[in-house]
């Protein structure tokens, strides 16, 4: 029986803002809040409730979100003019948005609904609507981009829009796991001996850690030493 197709469960929203938003919690500066990974509506109870809603095919009322402000750590991603103006980027991942909801027929409508849910979740912790801070392009359109799992599958051939390429695994080798080659020991093996997994689909890799690439390189070096 073939393995089930991987399934992503996230929606990604990119925003370009004229400045960072003010927070409801006035004891925390925007720079401090957005300087790392900003978690919104991600308590255990909220995550569990959102999962239960998602399983029933309902977009969670308070969609759990994780936010990254790359322009705070690396202003060079903006033009000098934008950086000097105080503009910032936000990347928001909305969770519990499974690919099973989507089809070619409903993707546009579902993308719009998910974008609304992400912005509403973000606004729940802000002192001002995030929509009011969006910069506009030359045509006057808000600088916001939303990608569903189906969008990622179409654009990047990610199976099911899964950003990890498949189900995550424990980082360690099981006792009965094959370990006859360097690639198997480093968790980067494929069915082809000269092709290694360098990205998020590696056993010990994931996200933007770079661990998969490191381990693939180490496997190559170890194999060369073995030869």
Q: Can you put this structure into words, describing what you see?
A:
With 227 residues, this protein is an alpha+beta fold. It folds into 2 domains: 10-161; 182-226. 32% of the residues lie in helices and 12% in strands. It contains 8 helices and 5 strands, in the order E-H-E-H-E-H-H-E-H-E-H-H-H. It has a 5-stranded antiparallel sheet with strand order 2-3-4-1-5. The mean pLDDT is 92.
**Poorly predicted segments:** none
Helix-strand sequence: EHEHEHHEHEHHH
> In this structure, how is the largest beta sheet organized?
5 strands, antiparallel
Supply the number of structural domains: 2
Number of strands: 5
Average pLDDT, all residues? 92
Helix fraction by DSSP (H/I, runs of at least 4)? 25-40%
- Calculate Rg over CA atoms: 20 Å
N→C terminal distance: 37 Å
Give the CA-based shape: globular
Share of β-strand residues = 5-15%
Structural class: alpha+beta
Strand order within the widest beta sheet: 2-3-4-1-5
Query: How many H/I helices?
Result: 8
Which key phrases capture this entry?
227 residues, alpha+beta, 2 domains, five-stranded antiparallel sheet
Question: Topology of this structure?
Answer:
Blueprint: E1 10-17, H1 30-34, E2 38-40, H2 44-55, E3 65-68, H3 70-73, H4 80-85, E4 88-95, H5 107-123, E5 144-147, H6 149-156, H7 182-186, H8 211-226
